[in-house]
Amino acid sequence: RMLRCWIRYLILLGVSILLYVFYVGYVSWFLFILVCSLPLISLCFFFLAKRKFTIKLSANPRYHKEEQGKLQLYAKTDCIVPLACAMVEYTITNHFYQESENGILRLSADKTFSEIDLPYSLTQCGKVEVTIDHVEVYDFLGLFHMKKKIQGRISTVIFPPNGSWHETVFLGGPQG
């Protein structure tokens, strides 16, 4: 993805150089300077937006099996300039069944919270834990990216529909 963006930028730079060489004037000079400064401008805005980028996980502490509940992720940047996208790698673990699944979300972040439902159905009982493994953020032109350290972890317990079970069983306690 980034290689494609760099190739597009280099083609744009080549076109602006050709225009500057063969069409001498203020317009060609202005376009050449603008195209040359785009990566620097994008990098400066990228550092501003990256610093203020936050992610928050949300879930109820308890659900009943097959309830219409959701595990949600909220992303936001408190900067005027939005990020082009963020790649969030997460792990959802059900401790009762010792199952885990990994996933990657691609999202954009601007001044309002982006609300994303994590793809996990509440059909199996047990303690479910969602962990953000790492996050990569990309600039608006797609030329630069960085990993951002965000510690995110949330857990919830999914009970059977009748609710007559003890909580320690679903938290990974003794199973009897």
How are the elements arranged and paired?
Layout lengths: L1 H21 L3 H26 L1 E6 L3 E3 L7 E6 L5 E12 L4 E11 L4 E4 L8 E13 L6 E4 L3 E8 L7 H4 L6
Helix pairs in contact: 1-2
Low-confidence stretches: none
In total, how many beta strands? 9
Q: Whole-number radius of gyration?
A: 23 Å
Structural class: alpha+beta
What is the arithmetic mean of pLDDT?
80
| H/E element order | HHEEEEEEEEEH
Query: Shape from CA axes?
Result: elongated
Distance between the termini: 51 Å
Residue share in helix: 25-40%
Strand share of the residues? 35-45%
Task: Please outline the major beta sheet.
Answer: 6 strands, mixed
Number of separate helices = 3
Describe the structure.
The protein is of the alpha+beta class and 176 residues long. 29% of the residues lie in helices and 38% in strands. The chain contains 3 helices and 9 strands, in the order H-H-E-E-E-E-E-E-E-E-E-H. Strands 2, 4, 5, 7, 8 and 9 form a 6-stranded mixed β-sheet that branches. The protein has a 3-stranded antiparallel β-sheet with strand order 1-3-6. Strand 7 and strand 8 form a beta hairpin. The longest helix has 26 residues. The model has no long low-confidence stretch (mean pLDDT 80).
